Amino acid sequence: MTGNIQQIIEARLNRAPVVPLIEASDPAVAIKTAQALQKGGLEVIEVVLRTDAALDCLEAIIAETEGITVGAGTVLDMDQLQASMEKGAQFIVSPGLVDEVAQHCLSQDVPVYAGTMTAGEVQRAYAMGLRTVKFFPAKLAGGVPMLKTLSSVFREMRFMPTGDVSADNLGEFLAVPSVIACGGSWLTPKAAIEAGDYNLITNLAREAVSLANDARA
């Protein structure tokens, strides 16, 4: 995996700066969910490791779709990192900053978005060589005002807010220049997935793309 993946991710996030989260226990359902999101214009997807079948779902999406960049989220330790990479994860997202995980990804040119919420954590990430981090939990950690404050100090850092981001506040987060994209699970509601209502997921994705375009305009 090389810097080319990073360029692909950045290009796709420039077009649609939203990263939906997929939490699934059935690979077939995960594939349909990913396809519905892609149909709505979202091409960077995070499969969170919150079910026993999450890695199989990640592998299935990669195998059965084209034009989507698929990463592993909620990666907590080196074992999960290694397992995710073996399944083909193209980027890594973690809720917090684990030095060993971040440093390994940096050494292997694997895009990694480590979770931060304080100035100390952002500074530690910066010292490691990271220039884009997850900001989590975005709303509880201070939301837009906190992001603006961090951005004024860490001028080279870019952020991916995740946690209580929704259609209601997506535009506010994306209006912050240092925000590369927002992550969120509001695009994949469990009730819709259980009902097989993939059209709703596509519509939510389209709405998010529209909101993002308005915010960036």
What does this structure look like?
It is built from ten helices and nine strands. It has helices spanning 3-15, 27-39, 54-64, 78-86, 99-107, 119-128, 143-153, 170-174, 190-194, 198-216, and strands at residues 18-22, 44-48, 69-73, 92-93, 112-113, 115-116, 132-135, 158-161, 182-184. The strands form three sheets. A four-stranded parallel β-sheet has the order 3-2-1-9.
Which term fits the overall shape? Answer: globular
Strand order of the largest sheet: 3-2-1-9
Tell me the helix content: 40-55%
Q: Tell me what portion of residues adopts beta-strand conformation.
A: 5-15%
Number of helices: 10
Order of helices and strands: HEHEHEHEHEEHEHEHEHH
Q: Biggest sheet, open or closed, and with what strands and sense?
A: 4 strands, parallel
What is the terminal separation in angstroms?
Answer: 33 Å
Provide the structure class: alpha/beta
- The tally of beta strands, per DSSP, is 9
Mean pLDDT: 97
Low-confidence stretches: none
CA gyration radius, whole angstroms: 16 Å
